């Protein structure tokens, strides 16, 4: 009783109503570590304008971190690594990850020599470290024509991952739906990649929507390859939870088994407008009881 009287007294003295206190408490309880893949706002972030207001809006919605998708010539969205980092942090978010890659040419595939590609990676890793990144993720690879080519691509991923690890970073691969196709009608591309890359050097960022579109189950992959998925792309046909075809509850309930440390919302299409879609998506995750406050702890 004394504690209750003290609380009421404090609220009256500070001019805070019980209603606003309850609202504040709910907001505090709802706060979760949810990142955004900035490809979602590619139409808003342009290289020739100041996109800081966009970052501020994302932070206000509740997004806590970003994964970039605009690395080119040593810069992020035409900003130096430090400028990009400063903008994100000034908006109240963290720089965590980035999609960037240097694909092998036909000549490099034929020769098996990717020394020139590794020079590109050395410079790219330095830029990403300067931007405060923890992860670099390759976002795309064509389906190789032969298992031999796929084997070489895996060796390449291992070399890039090893170089990242030696420089204090983590390296991963992000899937679409085509990785669930078979190469030479013998091996599933994604399975082969997971089985032929070093877990210490290569993780996988599972895009849950594209996995479903590839007629596969994210949860089945979590069980088959536990610990290999440090990050997830939380995606739906439009806003998160809009289609009803992605089993988000089962995905999140099995996230620890998968090895998940970070989740990133990605929107490619929206029902109404982008800002509404971004807000509805994070609100869905904030309200979902099966989404934990953080997966990195």
Report the span from N to C terminus.
36 Å
- Biggest sheet descriptor: 8 strands, parallel, barrel
Give the number of DSSP strands: 12
User: Which overall shape is indicated by the principal axes computed on the Cα atoms?
Assistant: globular
Mean pLDDT: 91
Helix content class: 40-55%
| Rg for CA atoms | 21 Å
Low-confidence segments, given as residue ranges, are 1-29
Topology as H/E string? HHEHEEEHEHHEHEEEHEHHEHHEH
Give the DSSP E fraction (strand runs of 2 or more residues). Answer: 5-15%
Number of helices: 13
Structural class: alpha/beta
> What is the strand arrangement across the widest sheet?
1-2-5-6-7-10-11-12
What key phrases describe this protein's structure?
alpha/beta; 8-stranded parallel beta barrel; 297 residues; two-stranded antiparallel sheet; 13 helices
In short:
44% of the residues lie in helices and 14% in strands. It has 297 residues and is an alpha/beta fold.
Polypeptide structure, described:
The chain is of the alpha/beta class. 44% of the residues lie in helices and 14% in strands. It has helices at residues 2-14, 18-30, 52-61, 81-90, 106-111, 115-130, 147-166, 189-195, 208-213, 218-224, 248-253, 255-258, 274-287; strands spanning 35-37, 65-68, 71-72, 75-76, 94-99, 135-138, 170-174, 182-183, 187-188, 203-207, 231-234, 262-265. The strands form 3 sheets. The protein has an 8-stranded parallel β-barrel with strand order 1-2-5-6-7-10-11-12. Strands 3-4 form a two-stranded antiparallel sheet. Strands 8-9 form a two-stranded antiparallel sheet. Strand 8 and strand 9 form a beta hairpin. The longest helix has 20 residues, at 147-166. The two termini are 36 Å apart.
């Amino acid at each position: 009783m004394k504690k209750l009287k003290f609380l009421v007294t404090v609220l009256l003295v500070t001019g805070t109503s019980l209603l606003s206190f309850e609202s504040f408490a709910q907001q505090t309880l709802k706060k979760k570590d949810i990142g955004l893949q900035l490809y979602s706002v590619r139409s808003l972030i342009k290289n020739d304008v100041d996109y800081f207001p966009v970052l501020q809006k994302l932070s206000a919605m509740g997004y806590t971190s970003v994964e970039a998708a605009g690395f080119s010539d040593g810069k992020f969205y035409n900003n130096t690594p430090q400028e990009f980092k400063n903008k994100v942090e000034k908006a109240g978010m963290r720089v965590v990850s980035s999609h960037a890659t240097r694909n092998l040419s036909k000549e490099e595939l034929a020769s098996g020599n990717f020394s020139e590609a590794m020079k590109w990676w050395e410079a790219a890793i330095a830029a990403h470290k300067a931007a405060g990144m923890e992860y670099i993720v390759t976002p795309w690879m064509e389906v190789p024509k032969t298992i031999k080519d796929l084997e070489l691509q895996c060796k390449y991923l291992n070399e890039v991952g090893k170089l990242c690890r030696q420089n204090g970073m983590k390296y991963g691969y992000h899937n679409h739906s085509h990785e669930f196709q078979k190469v030479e009608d013998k091996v599933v591309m994604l399975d082969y990649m997971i089985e032929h890359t070093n877990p210490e050097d290569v993780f996988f960022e599972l895009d849950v929507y594209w996995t479903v579109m590839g007629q596969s189950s994210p949860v089945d992959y979590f069980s088959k390859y536990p610990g290999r998925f440090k990050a997830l792309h939380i995606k739906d046909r439009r806003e998160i939870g809009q289609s009803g075809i992605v089993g988000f509850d089962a995905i999140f309930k099995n996230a620890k088994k998968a090895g998940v440390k970070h989740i990133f919302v990605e929107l490619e299409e929206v029902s109404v407008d982008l800002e509404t879609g971004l807000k509805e998506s994070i609100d869905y995750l904030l309200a979902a009881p099966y989404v934990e406050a953080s997966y990195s702890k």
